[in-house]
């Protein structure tokens, strides 16, 4: 069984609807509650809705998940401004970390698919929801998520997130 941790975010259009449609498409095994989060990286944009999910599938590679993520983004209209790399968007699906069928972490420097995600360790909006669904969460080759969240900057960012409500039942089957 291969496993992937995905971070989903939206700050344009009907944010919750965009994320719910993506979840219907991705069908995760475990999903965090929905969080409202201040924009990271570029302040001049609306607040985001974020959640982190875990998906497990036999024979599914990290690249398979990347194309699933791209499809989900296209279905949501993939509205974004290419001049603003951290700017507003209808849907963003990032592959945070992946493990292969043997349970070994997938490590990659390929710009098309860098694993673990190169900015995940800086983003409370990824780490807080992940830790909530997996207390043992660890970014392979980086650190345990609970250790990262003790860093002062991340701890401060973590306090600015607002947990809202579940949008995906973990019993979906
Ligand atoms: N771990 C990863 N997850 C998702 N995309 C990745 C990853 N590593 C590399 N990429 C590549 O990054 C490219 C740009 O992705 P995208 O436009 O979603 O970036 P972004 O969401 O604006 O920035 P960020 O990745 O910092 O959230 C994609 O075409 C994809 O091939
Ligand atoms: N809070 C928050 N900020 C962001 C997000 C996101 O999903 N949530 N995604 C971004 C795209 O890189 C840039 N900034």
How would you characterize the overall build of this protein?
The chain has 173 residues and is an alpha+beta fold. The chain has a single domain, classed as Alpha-Beta Plaits (2-Layer Sandwich). The chain has five helices and ten strands; from the N terminus they run βαβββαβββαββααβ. The strands form three sheets. Strands 1, 2, 3, 4, 5 and 10 form a six-stranded antiparallel β-sheet that branches. The chain has a two-stranded antiparallel ribbon with strand order 6-7. The chain has a two-stranded antiparallel sheet with strand order 8-9. β6 and β7 (113-115) form a beta hairpin. α1 (15-26) packs antiparallel against α2. The model has no long low-confidence stretch (mean pLDDT 94). The site of adenosine-5'-triphosphate has 10 residues, from β5 and β7. 2-amino-6-hydroxymethyl-7,8-dihydro-3H-pteridin-4-one is lined by residues 9, 37-41, 48, 50, 86, 92, 125.
Keywords:
173 residues; alpha+beta; Alpha-Beta Plaits; six-stranded antiparallel β-sheet; 5 helices; globular; binds adenosine-5'-triphosphate; binds 2-amino-6-hydroxymethyl-7,8-dihydro-3H-pteridin-4-one
């Amino acid at each position: 069984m291969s496993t992937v941790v995905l971070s989903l975010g939206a700050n344009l259009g009907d944010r919750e609807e965009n994320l719910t449609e993506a979840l219907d498409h991705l069908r995760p095994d475990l999903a965090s509650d929905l969080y409202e989060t201040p924009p990271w990286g570029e302040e001049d944009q609306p607040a985001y809705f974020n959640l982190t999910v875990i998906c497990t599938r036999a024979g599914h590679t990290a690249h398979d998940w990347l194309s699933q993520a791209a499809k989900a983004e296209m279905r949501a209209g993939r509205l974004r401004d290419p001049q603003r790399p951290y700017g507003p968007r209808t849907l963003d699906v990032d592959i945070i970390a992946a493990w292969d069928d043997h349970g070994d972490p997938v490590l990659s420097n390929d710009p098309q698919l860098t694993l673990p995600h190169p900015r995940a360790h800086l983003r409370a909006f990824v780490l807080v929801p992940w830790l909530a669904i997996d207390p043992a969460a660890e970014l392979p080759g980086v650190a345990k998520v609970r250790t990262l969240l003790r860093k002062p900057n991340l701890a401060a960012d973590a306090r600015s997130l607002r947990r809202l409500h579940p949008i995906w039942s973990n019993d979906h089957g």
